[in-house]
Amino acid sequence: SEALKPVLEQLDIVIDLTYAPTPASYTLDTFLSTYNLTNDDASRYPFLTNSKVLRVDAATASLFPPIIGLDWFEDAIPHPDAVLADLVAYIVPEAIANK
Question: What pLDDT, in 10s, does the model give residues 39-53?
């Protein structure tokens, strides 16, 4: 993760694909620990300063506990237009707000 830090310093947004067996327990602190970062590092990383760490497991469903379905894999594929609109709204909110 040390070799990755110079790259992370250049990013405005990070899409974190780290596997989490229980997505609800994965927090920003988990992300920081995974990448050997601390809250004190936030000023070095634009995506932390602007709170722009995205996860693909934010929306889940558990019809058959303990099996958890991720909306990213179940809904994103048949609705790429909705995924793109969500990304645009997240990255450039004023682009959607002016519609």
Answer: 898 899 999 999 999
Q: What secondary structure letter does DSSP report for 19?
A: -
Q: Do 52 and 14 meet the contact criterion of CB atoms below 8 Å apart?
A: yes
Tell me 57's DSSP state. T
> Please, what sign has the CA dihedral across residues 19, 60, 50, 95?
positive
pTM: predicted TM-score of the whole model, two decimal places = 0.75
In 1-79, alpha helices (H): 5-8, 28-34, 46-49, 71-74
Q: What does the block give as tokens for 26?
A: 């994965």
| Planar angle of CA 35, 40, 20, nearest 5 degrees | 30
Under 8 Å between Cβ of 23 and 55: yes
User: Which alpha helices (DSSP H) does the chain contain, by range?
Assistant: 5-8, 28-34, 46-49, 71-74, 80-91, 93-97
Structure tokens at 16: 């974190």
Beta bridge partners of 75: none
